[in-house]
Amino acid sequence: MSHFDIIGDIHGHADALEKLLEKMSYQRFNGIYRHPDRQAIFLGDFIDRGPKIRETLHLVKAMVDAGYAQAIMGNHEYNAVCFDTKNTKEGGYYREHNDEKIKQHYKTLEQFHAFPEEWEQFLAWFRHLPMYKSLDTCKVVHAYWNDDNIQWLEQHYQPQGEGLSAGFLSNCYREGLPGFKAVEETLKGPEHRLPDGKFMVDKEGIERKECRLKWWAMDKSTMGEGVMECPPELRHEPMPQGCDSTVFTSDKRVFFGHYWLTGVPKIENESAICLDYSIAKDGILVAARLNEGKKPDLWH
Ligand SMILES: [Mn+2]
Q: Is the dihedral of CA 151, 170, 127, 42 positive or negative?
């Protein structure tokens, strides 16, 4: 089956998801959305922020269980598992329970407050989601496809086996551990340290010394072109030393989400297509419809 519809980050916006599926001629039978000859691919980040996180998870997981969809893990699902898993060696949890991290996860905890067993089941499902897929006509990943990282995951992450076990997490949950880079970059994208004294402010209003690289951009000669949310005073600066300035190419198209793009969806780089247009921040939910031998169509 190569007739895929690839769907970007949902973040609890189940109504927008239903609308988009219906627009793309998916129909609900016995409560499960399906298309007679197509399969949906979900790029992760089902949870946090939005008003209908439970509904989103039920809808997506039911489609996957029935074979009408496939799903990969987003950084929010990974974070949720880390937040829930005790670090028996060093104490605490693999994701700290501090104000910033509770705030980011709050909507999910709140909406599942009365359904703890359901939440446990979804966490168990997250623990076994693949972090990437190479399909016959495309590749999918939540944030960043890098062959070295994918190779590390291929060797060390077994979604069908132990998945995100405490043993696996203890090997990658923080900087300095052998699996940190592969997991972090695959799910959250590559970052680079800003020049001394410079910082950027992220969506949560937190100051960060790292910038997020637009690894898929065609032109990466200035920071304005090559980094996300570039501070205005750095826009015309050359990219920091050590950033990859080559144009990303791939044998098959890579689809990814994660980056909170805004405006009208468009394909910047034919080899790497972002489908996250900020549904959780007054944006839209976007899908790419793939038909053999044709350019992908963007739907919203
Ligand atoms: Mn994300």
A: negative
Strand 69-71 relative to strand 39-42, pairing: parallel
Q: Measured in angstroms, how far is the CA atom of residue 34 from the centroid of ligand 1?
A: 25
Alpha carbon of 276 to ligand 1 centroid (Å): 9
Determine the residue type at 38: R
d(CA 118, CA 175): 32
4-205+247-299 under CATH 3.40.50.300, yes or no = no
pLDDT digits (tens, 9 = 90+) for 246-294: 999 999 999 999 999 999 999 999 999 999 999 999 999 999 999 988 8
Q: In this structure, are residues 83 and 105 in contact, taking their beta carbons and an 8 Å threshold?
A: yes
The full length of the chain comes to 300
* pTM listed for this prediction: 0.96
- Cα(151) to centroid of ligand 1, in Å? 21
